User: Which sequence fits this backbone?
């Protein structure tokens, strides 16, 4: 029967942590348009600490992280379908002046480019960007501002808890 001194030296097992759908992470990340216009970045600041599956990152960004090992630095090119989706022409709609008045502060003066919030029938909130306005109605774009754009997502996973 072999004794402990007779056994061969076995290298220690290294626990290589990988990102799971509910992992706590410390990471740096950057989201930019395809042409390099930065939307958000933590690389020049403190890293972010978050838990996946809690809505702190968009689901498509979380999906990029699943399975990556701790220490990974990677860049993802995301077509519109894998980001905020394509632009939907059905989400460009006219809103009457009466509805605008119901959803705004007294004497609100709207200017093309304003982001205006509305109350949904169920009590939720949604927003649209004013594209044009006249005496009868305003034309609003309710698409996400990043819809239809190719995005670049860069990540450096510092730690997995």
Assistant:
């Amino acid at each position: 029967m072999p004794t402990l001194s007779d056994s061969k030296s076995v290298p220690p097992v290294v626990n290589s942590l990988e990102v799971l759908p509910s992992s706590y992470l410390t990471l740096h990340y950057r989201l930019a348009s395809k042409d390099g216009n930065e939307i958000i970045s933590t690389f020049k600041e403190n890293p972010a600490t978050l838990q996946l599956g809690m809505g702190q990152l968009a689901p498509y960004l979380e999906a990029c992280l699943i399975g990556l090992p701790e220490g990974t630095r990677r860049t993802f090119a995301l077509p519109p379908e894998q980001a905020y989706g394509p632009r939907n022409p059905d989400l460009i709609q006219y809103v009457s002046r009466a509805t605008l008045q119901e959803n705004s502060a007294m004497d609100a003066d709207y200017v093309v480019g304003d982001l205006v919030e509305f109350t949904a029938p169920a009590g939720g909130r949604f927003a649209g960007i004013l594209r044009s306005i006249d005496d009868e109605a305003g034309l609003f774009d309710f698409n996400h501002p990043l819809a239809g754009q190719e995005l670049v997502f860069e990540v450096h996973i510092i730690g997995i808890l």
In short: The beta strands are 24-33, 38-41, 48-51, 73-78, 92-96, 115-119, 125-133, 137-141, 151-160. Residues 59-65 form the longest helix (7 residues).
